[in-house]
Amino acid sequence: MKLVDSHCHLDDKQFAADRDAVIDRARAAGVERLMAIGTGDGPPDLETAVRLADAFPFFYATVGVHPHDASKAVDESFDRLRDLLAHPKVLALGEIGLDYHYDFSPRDTQRAVFVRQIELAREAGIPIVIHTREAWTDTLQILRENYSGAGIFHCFTGGPAEAREALDLGFHLSFGGVLTFPKAEPVREAARLTPQDRLLVETDAPYLAPVPHRGKRNEPAFLVDTVRKLAEIRGTSPEELAAVTTRNFERLCLRYTG
Ligand SMILES: [Zn+2]
Ligand SMILES: [Zn+2]
Fold this sequence. Notes:
The protein has helices spanning 19-28, 48-55, 75-84, 107-124, 136-146, 160-168, 185-193, 223-234, 238-253; strands spanning 3-8, 31-36, 59-63, 90-99, 128-133, 151-153, 172-175, 199-201. Strands 1-2-3-4-5-6-7-8 form an 8-stranded parallel sheet. The chain is 40% helix and 17% strand. With 258 residues, the protein is α/β, with parallel strands linked by helices. It contains 9 helices and 8 strands. The longest helix is centred in the middle third of the chain and has 18 residues, at 107-124. One zinc ion (ZN) is lined by residues 7, 9, 37, 95, 204. One zinc ion binds at residues 95, 131, 154-155.
């Protein structure tokens, strides 16, 4: 199987002691390419993923301010993001969006920083990676009013109704470990109805490890467990799903690298 992990946080300090071994296990499991998400601990350091992409040929990067860190963003942060979007291995802007579960930043600040980053993505013609938690209505409204380009709803945890809304906006849905959780039947329904050409897979490592690793630190090698589950749900083979999701990643993100 040749896989792309479309969303992982390997800059995280949970990987400080054994990052190289984690990367070796990923490659041995067939995860040939990884998209490092560059939100880190927020501004001023916006380059956590770029450093990985510079160090390893099989890593790509995103840059962006996570909604948790929205209140740390200042004018210079957006200028820096604009510069970083020109880096040849930065393929998307994200993860950006709204998180009303933790409310680490005030909601009006989250919305303003989300909109400002959408403008940067539009200007650069680069896809966006959306994080949304307990903020579905506002997320959709902001996207409808401000964006008509391509993007990914990462770690999709909505049900069929939310999936249809996101798909209507032209977005891809990326499924992760939650798909394997016993109570996640609505997420599995969403995964069943997603058209083949809009599917992606991710780990979101170190978070949300799939069954049978649930509760442990997640790592890209565990993507295989999510892919097996997704194949079972959709009545196809893991190999076919690996090919489909790799093709989708290439079409969505690599066309911008020229
Ligand atoms: Zn997220
Ligand atoms: Zn993430």
